Amino acid sequence: MTTTCVLLYLIFPTMMVQTFSMFSCIAVDGEPRLSADLEERCWEGRHLVYALSLGLGQLSLYAVGLPMLALAMLYKNRRHLAGGAVVRFHYGLFFSGFRQDRWYWEGVVALRKIAVVGLGVFGPADGIESLAHWALLLLGGVIAVQILGSPFEAGGRE
Description:
Blueprint: H1 2-21, E1 25-28, E2 31-34, E3 37-41, H2 45-76, H3 85-95, H4 105-122, H5 128-149
Antiparallel strand pairs: 1-2, 2-3
């Protein structure tokens, strides 16, 4: 269980890049083309079939399913997070370092990862200046949420 959690935690951003890449299109001579393969027209034929079947499946499984699964496991074991050695061993990657009442904060971190990956995949299509503005906006929002949420333990001074 621990190995599975660690592997999923480490490859989550890469899975999100691959998922978002199925939907990333740019205009080439006025026609939408898939960024990963400029010979492939977006939202026609093969791309439409793959995007609707594989792409939406991956979005629901990776972007929604994995974070929700982790949150469900933490919610189920939320009363044992502080004292349960087995629970701490299995799921400690997702909650250690956070305050006990912020057991869900890894879900916020997952949303942040999804937003950063999405910006990295879709942002360059609008140009570097636009990407820089969106990145600054995202960074400011993430910092504000972090300050307001105050998820980290205070080093034993609470």
